[in-house]
Structure to design on (257 residues):
């Protein structure tokens, strides 16, 4: 059962020049809930992700975290508030090791003897990176291995593991199963389930509808910048989901009907 509403957007809009990418979208995410965000190419999913992750300021609308209205000036603001986002290109640094990637931008420095001579606590980070990844069910060969030596699927697993390990409230995954084999995609879905179990709110974006149907509690369908359907996953099957996305199934009451 999902908990309290942790993250919410009300009536957010975003335009790029004359293109209306988001048109009054509202969304509520509960603790321990997985929402699937779906829609055709250009529907506005990534734009909504960018508003939620602090990468874009909406032109209108409100954002609430734990019931308090917030406004993000940068992705760092949202990150510091406990919202992790995994963008389509995961942003791992190939020349760094697994543990360095897990701690990228959050490197731990130990105080030196003189107090001001800091050095990175390398072993501590390796151990903790390993523990963090294991906790979410990722078996990475060794956290001191360079990411360039991992397969695409293993890299993706590290990127997701990193997000889940750091997220304190919300995790947003933009197409995390893209380009993965069936087994690796299955592992990513397991990680999403682990994140849910930890009580995180998860937003999962994917065009692979069987994955969405398998792992989500609720599905939100975007069409041309508008949320046209927001319902429990149990109310959909493959056909109704496709119909809702493409618009062959009527979702919005037309004025005068
Ligand atoms: N930086 C930008 N400048 C201008 N228009 C943009 C920009 N980013 C997105 N758009 C437009 O905004 C609309 C929504 O795009 P968005 O990337 O949010 O769609 P999406 O649902 O993520 O699609 P996809 O499934 O292809 O990733 C589209 O019409 C797109 O062309
Ligand atoms: Mg997109």
């Amino acid at each position: 059962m999902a908990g309290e509403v942790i993250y919410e957007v009300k009536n957010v809009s975003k335009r790029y020049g004359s293109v209306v990418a988001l048109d009054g979208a509202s969304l509520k995410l509960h603790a321990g809930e997985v929402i699937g965000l779906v829609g055709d190419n250009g529907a506005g999913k990534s734009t909504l992700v960018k508003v939620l992750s602090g990468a874009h300021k909406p032109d209108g609308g409100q954002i609430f975290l734990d019931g308090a209205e917030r406004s993000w000036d940068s992705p760092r603001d949202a990150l510091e508030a406990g919202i992790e986002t995994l963008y389509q290109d995961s942003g791992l640094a190939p020349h760094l090791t697994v543990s360095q990637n897990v701690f990228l931008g959050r490197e731990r420095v130990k105080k030196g003897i003189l107090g001001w001579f800091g050095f990175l606590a390398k072993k501590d980070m390796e151990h903790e990176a390993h523990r963090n990844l294991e906790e979410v069910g990722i078996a990475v060969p060794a956290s001191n291995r360079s990411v360039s030596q991992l397969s695409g699927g293993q890299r993706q697993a590290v990127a997701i593991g990193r997000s889940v390990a750091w997220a304190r409230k919300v995790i947003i995954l933009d197409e995390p199963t893209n380009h993965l084999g069936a087994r690796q995609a299955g592992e990513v879905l397991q990680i999403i389930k682990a994140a849910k179990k930890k009580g995180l709110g998860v937003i999962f974006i994917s065009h692979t509808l069987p994955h969405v149907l398998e792992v989500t509690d609720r599905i939100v369908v975007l069409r041309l910048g508008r949320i046209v359907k927001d319902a429990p996953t149990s109310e959909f099957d493959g056909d109704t989901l496709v119909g809702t996305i493409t618009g062959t199934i009527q979702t919005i009451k037309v004025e005068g009907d």
DSSP finds eight helices and twelve strands in the chain. The two ends are 37 Å apart (CA to CA).
